[in-house]
């Protein structure tokens, strides 16, 4: 490989570019079409060559800050050469870089923000030259933000607009009239900056808060915005803007001399900035556009570009993303330290600063019950800088007092705490008082999520519980998890606190109603919720490893042997209830018996239910829905009946007779012949599985369809609380019926979550499909589901060809192709007394359920029920099946053939062979 350029001048030859442009322009200038076309070709070519060299350098040395400076230099040379050509060497205006370009750094896809600074009077020739430059830059496909103003106009607009003021704060002369630019600089500093520091700080901090709210409040979103997200580059830029404006410095390094940062903290600032610039520049180079969000589909490539490799328990992309989130956390630490210095070191010199920044009067008073902490400006602060060194338990007391008195932290206290984390050692972790305080904070009836997050942000939580420290900033490379592991656990504590307070009683009333009866196990429940994913990222099953960790650390936290055992059991089985509810047939008694044999007591059942609700709801917005709540409630009540001895011991035949009599009685207002005909249609499985009220609805549906002589009909019913819509299909039974229904739902964009398949005595199918609800209002949802039903009818009657519709109407979600999930199929005969249970797992795609059910049909299997569960990009579908004689699949050769067929379907090879055969 050729030697890479190390100096800026080697990236692009500015002198040669000026000479070449001048030769092309000739006497007519660049306004002539031929000259303009030649110049445009040259500029594009030189820019592409230079940017290519910069990308090679980035891959070679990995420095993001250097990359941003190099790209900026390339643009400076191009703009300088253009200016020299169009201005004829005169200096009638100044071409000024503002915004990020003014700071001297650019990403490959960044906007080029230019200010054409004109002398008073606005020389027409200068304005024309600016216009020529702009058109050429636009023709180069550059995003150019521009303004043409005089010095007076700049100052007037800057007084009115904080954004313009920030742009001018970073103004930098690229080329042209240096004296004119100096006049702007001098007057801007004297007339605005020197007198409006507090006002500017207030505005920029408010702007930052608004930006965070828009981009996502958490800095631990698994697809973060590198530029505008919390903990991203814009946060660092905001610190620099405020520092430059308020402290009147030119560089971030000067903030060390002002006492704002220590040298180590400034080094952290530079390191974070360099890393974030590297990520951002790689993203732009990779995608060929100004991509600012680190989407799943590019995370793996960025990790590879940055040189990350896989380690046991963590893939390369997960290690890269953990590094990213740790850097984002460091940016948060620097922000706290900066704000503390801003308030403490400078507020005393600026009259009214406290009132402007936070509305506080500068009052200090003692805090009851302690001499180590005070109330300063209505916030909790340390009495002196030796508080933590004098007694490390004070690290916990700070958060305990904040929780007890519902107080905000003074920035100085958090800065001192961050700088005192080295005091956390084995002795503190084993200290009974420290552990009592921590347990009080964790189980607080006020806002435990808030103070745990503060402890985690400050770095104390990971130091106090080293195993928790290992999952801080750890992301799981999947579309299911919205947050890093530590953020998920803290959010789960917030959900548990909400359940206990009754804030979400309408979302899951059962959990709320159970909490008052769990007072004896309350501490154990909170600890289990905090620790249930603490062993993520290890080679061992995280549930088993997590239980072992709990047995080790819970006694130190002050939990009894019984509570420690409860915590360990809950962690080891924290996925059991969720997976059973979502992937098993809850109408199959064997499902309930197997689940109950693990749970063993009603107390554990209650605790596991609450933990499961917290776990699902803490994953992220949109993951919890009413249907999952309904499944959990059904599993809970059925299991409770069995554990308390209330589960029916009647024989299956007796229960069938009783169910048939109940339906006959419910239809008592019908003519007897009609009633007997409908009741006789249903087999045992239907009568024992379907609720009586639904049986009556189905009876009316069948009766109306028969009266109208409709051999094919659908009925829709929205369920608002469960957030699903039920579609009932009545059709002549045939082996691929469920496959066609699933395909029609996929084509309509309807996500199936559950399906029950029944056959009537006269050879018809009565299938009930549950799809995720899309609209809030029932009338809107009914219209939408009616359209889905119509598409099902068209597909079943042959009016629509599903493969074409699916291909046209659906497409995989962004990033889905990035994931690699080995296809798996398993047949288990021990999970049901009457059915073989087939579980398939693989990468989801549009129409997959239709393909799988079609494959099952081709294998001559009769599907009794289907349970569809999607975890982001991964699908886990469970089918209760028999062969065509109603028997389980127990022949090893047959089992092997079924598994092979399903695996081929999951990875797409089965579909490819089917298409090839058709062609």
Automatic annotation (TrEMBL):
One of its GO terms (molecular function) is [protein-PII] uridylyltransferase activity. InterPro entries: ACT-like_dom_sf (IPR045865), ACT_dom (IPR002912), HD/PDEase_dom (IPR003607), HD_domain (IPR006674), NT_sf (IPR043519), PII_UdlTrfase/GS_AdlTrfase (IPR013546), Polymerase_NTP_transf_dom (IPR002934), UTase/UR (IPR010043). CDD domains: ACT_ACR-UUR-like_2, ACT_UUR-like_1, HDc, NT_GlnE_GlnD_like. Residues 1-368 are annotated as: Uridylyltransferase. Residues 726-808, 837-916 form the ACT domain. Uridylyltransferase (UTase) activity is inhibited by glutamine, while glutamine activates uridylyl-removing (UR) activity. It comes from the Bacteria. Pfam families: ACT (PF01842), GlnD_UR_UTase (PF08335), HD (PF01966), NTP_transf_2 (PF01909). Modifies, by uridylylation and deuridylylation, the PII regulatory proteins (GlnB and homologs), in response to the nitrogen status of the cell that GlnD senses through the glutamine level. Under low glutamine levels, catalyzes the conversion of the PII proteins and UTP to PII-UMP and PPi, while under higher glutamine levels, GlnD hydrolyzes PII-UMP to PII and UMP (deuridylylation). Thus, controls uridylylation state and activity of the PII proteins, and plays an important role in the regulation of nitrogen metabolism. Belongs to the GlnD family. PANTHER family: BIFUNCTIONAL URIDYLYLTRANSFERASE/URIDYLYL-REMOVING ENZYME, BIFUNCTIONAL URIDYLYLTRANSFERASE_URIDYLYL-REMOVING ENZYME. Has four distinct domains: an N-terminal nucleotidyltransferase (NT) domain responsible for UTase activity, a central HD domain that encodes UR activity, and two C-terminal ACT domains that seem to have a role in glutamine sensing. NCBIfam families: PRK05092.1, UTase_glnD. This is Bifunctional uridylyltransferase/uridylyl-removing enzyme. The lineage of its organism: Bacteria, Pseudomonadati, Pseudomonadota, Alphaproteobacteria, Hyphomicrobiales.
């Amino acid at each position: 490989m050729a030697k890479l350029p190390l100096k800026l001048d080697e990236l692009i030859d500015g002198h040669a570019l000026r000479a070449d442009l001048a030769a092309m322009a000739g006497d007519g200038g660049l306004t002539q079409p031929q000259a303009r076309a030649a110049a445009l070709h040259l500029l594009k070519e030189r820019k592409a060559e230079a940017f290519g060299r910069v990308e090679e350098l980035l891959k070679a040395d990995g420095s993001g800050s250097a990359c941003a400076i190099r790209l900026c230099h390339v643009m400076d040379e191009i703009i300088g050469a253009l200016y020299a050509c169009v201005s004829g060497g005169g200096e009638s205006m100044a071409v000024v870089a503002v915004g990020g370009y003014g700071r001297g750094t650019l990403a490959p896809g960044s906007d080029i923000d230019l200010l054409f600074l004109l002398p008073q009077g606005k020389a027409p020739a200068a304005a024309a030259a600016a216009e020529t430059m702009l058109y050429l830059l636009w023709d180069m496909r550059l995003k150019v933000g521009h303004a043409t103003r005089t010095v007076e106009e700049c100052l007037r607009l800057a007084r009115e607009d904080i954004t313009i003021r920030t742009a001018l704060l970073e103004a930098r002369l690229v080329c042209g009239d240096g004296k004119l630019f100096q006049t702007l600089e001098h007057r801007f500093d004297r007339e605005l900056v020197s007198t409006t520091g507090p006002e500017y700080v207030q505005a920029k901090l408010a702007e930052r808060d608004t930006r965070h709210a828009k981009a996502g409040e958490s800095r631990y979103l698994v697809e973060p915005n590198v530029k505008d997200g919390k903990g991203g580059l814009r946060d660092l830029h905001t610190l620099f803007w405020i520092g430059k404006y308020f402290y009147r410095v030119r560089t971030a390094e000067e903030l060390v001399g002002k006492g704002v940062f220590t040298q180590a903290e400034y080094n952290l600032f530079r390191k974070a900035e360099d890393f974030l610039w590297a990520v951002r520049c790689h993203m732009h180079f990779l995608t060929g556009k100004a991509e600012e969000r680190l989407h799943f589909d590019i995370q793996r490539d960025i990790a590879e570009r940055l040189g990350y490799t896989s380690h046991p328990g963590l893939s390369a992309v997960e290690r890269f993303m953990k590094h990213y989130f740790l850097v984002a956390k460091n940016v948060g630490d620097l922000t706290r330290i900066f704000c503390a210095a801003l308030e403490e070191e400078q507020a005393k010199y600026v009259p009214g600063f406290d009132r402007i920044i936070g509305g506080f009067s500068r009052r200090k008073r003692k805090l009851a019950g302690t001499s180590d902490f005070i109330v300063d400006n209505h916030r909790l602060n340390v009495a002196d800088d030796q508080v933590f060194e004098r007694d490390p338990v004070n690290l916990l007391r700070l958060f305990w007092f904040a929780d007890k008195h519902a107080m905000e932290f003074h920035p100085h206290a958090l800065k001192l705490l961050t700088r005192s984390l080295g005091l956390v050692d084995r002795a503190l972790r084993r200290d009974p008082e420290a552990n009592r305080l921590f347990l009080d904070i964790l189980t607080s009836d006020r806002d435990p999520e808030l103070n745990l997050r503060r402890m985690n942000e400050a770095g104390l939580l990971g130091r106090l519980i080293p195993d928790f420290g290992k999952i801080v900033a750890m992301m799981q490379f999947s579309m299911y998890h919205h947050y890093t592991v530590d953020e998920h656990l803290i959010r789960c504590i917030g959900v548990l606190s909400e359940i206990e307070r009754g804030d979400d009683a309408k979302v899951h009333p059962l959990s709320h109603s159970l909490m008052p009866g769990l007072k004896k196990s309350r501490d154990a429940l909170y600890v289990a919720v905090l620790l249930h994913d603490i062993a993520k990222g290890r080679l061992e099953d995280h549930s088993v490893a997590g239980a072992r960790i709990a047995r080790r650390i819970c006694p130190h936290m002050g939990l009894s042997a019984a509570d420690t055992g409860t915590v360990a059991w809950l962690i080891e089985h924290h996925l059991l209830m969720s997976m059973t509810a979502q992937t098993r047939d809850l109408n199959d008694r064997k499902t309930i018996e197997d689940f109950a044999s693990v749970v063993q007591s009603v107390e554990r059942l209650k605790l596991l239910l609450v933990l499961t609700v917290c776990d699902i709801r803490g994953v992220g917005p949109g993951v919890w829905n009413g249907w999952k709540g309904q499944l959990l409630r059904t599993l809970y009540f059925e299991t409770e009946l069995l554990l308390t001895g209330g589960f029916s011991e009647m024989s299956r035949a007796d229960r069938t007779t009783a169910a048939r009599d109940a339906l006959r009685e419910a239809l008592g207002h019908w003519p007897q012949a009609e009633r007997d005909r409908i009741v006789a249609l249903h087999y045992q499985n239907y009568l024992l599985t379907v609720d009586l009220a639904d049986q009556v609805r189905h009876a009316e549906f069948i009766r109306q369809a028969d009266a109208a002589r409709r051999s094919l009909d659908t009925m829709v019913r929205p369920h608002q609380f469960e957030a699903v819509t039920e579609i009932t299909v009545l059709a002549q039974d045939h082996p691929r019926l469920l496959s066609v229904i699933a395909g029609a739902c996929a084509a309509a964009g309807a996500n199936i979550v559950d399906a029950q398949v029944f056959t009537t005595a006269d050879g018809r199918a009565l299938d009930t499909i549950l799809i995720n609800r899309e609209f809030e209002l029932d009338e809107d949802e009914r219209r939408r589901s009616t359209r889905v039903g119509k598409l099902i009818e068209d597909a079943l009657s042959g009016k629509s060809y599903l493969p074409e519709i699916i291909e046209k109407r659906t497409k995989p979600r962004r990033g889905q192709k990035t994931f690699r999930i080995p296809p798996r199929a398993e047949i288990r005969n021990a999970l049901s007394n009457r059915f073989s249970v087939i579980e398939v797992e693989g990468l989801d795609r549009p129409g997959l359920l239709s393909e799988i059910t079609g494959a099952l049909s081709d294998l001559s299997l009769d599907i009794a029920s289907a349970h569809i569960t999607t975890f982001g990009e991964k699908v886990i579908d469970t089918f209760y099946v028999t062969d065509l004689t109603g028997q389980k699949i127990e022949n090893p050769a047959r089992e092997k053939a079924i598994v092979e067929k399903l695996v081929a379907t999951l990875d797409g090879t089965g579909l490819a062979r089917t298409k090839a055969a058709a062609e």
